[in-house]
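Record 1 of the preview.
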Amino acid sequence: MSLGAHVASNLPYLRRYARALTGSQTAGDAYVRATLEAALSDDDLRASLEGGRVPLYRAFTRLWESAWLEVADLPGEANLHEAAAHERLSTITPRNRQALLLSTLEDFSLAETAEIMGTSSEEVESLVKEAIGEIENESATNVLIIEDEPLISMQLEDLVTSLGHDICGVAATRTQAQQVVAERTPGLVLADIQLADGSSGLDAVDDILAMVNVPVIFITAYPERLLTGDRPEPTYLVTKPFQEATVRAAISQALFFGSSSPID
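->
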């Protein structure tokens, strides 16, 4: 596989990680673009990218860690969600969230995560524990689950409630999602894309966002369909089949960066 093909095959996932880390499509994509530009101008860096996913994420990490405080100054399609992300990033060093995302969302081993972050496996394990502690300390919120597969829906319900959140409704179609939101405002939405009656989870989420500013986590078997760069894309994207730790990390990130509604 050529270097270009290798990078292209991993690009959707690096973009997913970048936006989850920064809480912003604008900022995340800007850092990915800067990483690729750096590789084009540096022969050694370009050669290292032939070694697989780890060098690519390592190159991204070096650039991000050297300039992450400047993210708030990036131009782009600013919204309330991104504004909240930038404000919080300016006061909190997100190294523990970085370790959690690499080891869960991106499914790197502790050793690979350590190599990417330039630290030890022991330090990564400690950072992950700290990140999990942040999750446990998040304020409880109402969660709407939009999912048409009963077993997955039940798994998500159990996970969400185990984290101390409340289920405000479960919907298998766009219409059902509308009905739930009409009765109770969610503070977080977990959404599949393809729903039971052929309706779209994307459309269901658009309906919700037209009424309330709420963080959304998409859960899909086809993440590349959403990471095309052709339209505004989800900041939080989990691939099916998922690990519970991955969803847990995404919930932590979404609630950290997004404004959530308390349980009523």
